[in-house]
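Trying the structure run again after the queue cleared.
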Amino acid sequence: MKSLFSIITLALLTALSAKGEGVDSLQIYVQAGDSCMQQYDTYEALKCYQRAYAIAESQDSVRISMEGDIRVKLADCYYKRANYRETSELLKNLPEDSLSHDAFRQLAYSYQKQGDNDSFMYWAQQLVGRFPMDGEVVAGLTLAYAKANQPQRGIICGMKYCQRDSTNILVNRALADAWFMNRDFTAAGKLYDRLLEQGDSTFNTLYSAGMCCSQLDSLERAYKYLQLAFLISGMQHAGCAYRLGVVCVDTQRYPEGLNYLSLARELMRPDTTIMKAITLSQGEGYYLTQHYPEAVNAWKEHLGYNPFSVATYFNIANAYAYILKDDEQARSYYQQFLDSAAEVETPTPQLSEMVAKAREMIK
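Done. Tokens:
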């Protein structure tokens, strides 16, 4: 059936191309796009809606009556394909009262997904004004205020919703976080407790509840929540390990606390592979731009991550010998180079040449 429809649609569109495009062809393109969307074929739907939109824009008689509807359909297709810039461009100039709830949400969330928090806040405010019980948008707006360092406005937004519905987990999470950002740990703690009673045992809720308890000197409860949060994180969250270690020390669980603090330190160490590449490139960049002391420092840091980098010892030694004129440091790094090169089982001709030069320099 699906293949039959595709054949019919293709035949119609081919005929339209030959005949020329008018109101009838616009409607057929829209219907074809709608059918493609029903089959979740956004790729073909996009082509149909784009053609329909182009026809609507070119004909004044059509523009007033149909362009808005086609614009919304095209925006919906773009949104489902994660093209959020096109979605927002299509929807932002339409009259707000002409937008359906879904289209209005797509407009607001398109800005959020583009990382434009200010525009998201503006459109989410308009959306909440029309649909005040859309809990998902209220929660998003509450968090957006907190992200913009306006937690008080987030609290007002969330509290207004909670006057009618205090059971929405999304809104309660956002409101609790806003209270936390506002450093009202008592109010935040009460909401985190409510969330836990509702069965919300996510990492963020447990971690934030533990943080509130630690701020309020309720250390036994902080220990309980932080321990659960750390387990949920797969024992991979450095901040949680650190906070848990501090609470353990404060509650005289010294061996346990020291273990958590040691683990936090390990988790906070930068990735060795990445740091090898970064420090090596830094050294080369500094050297080529004649920032020689900085180049030597970068190469020394590189050795901390890659102590078997034979060439790096040689580069540092040469920099000290020929540029920085520090004979003592040069001899030291030439010797370290020779010690490191001696471990290479099959030296290349280039390495052998470097070894000969280093021996000559330390005579």
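Residues 1-5, 14-19 have pLDDT under 50 and may be disordered. Worth checking whether this holds up in the mutant runs.
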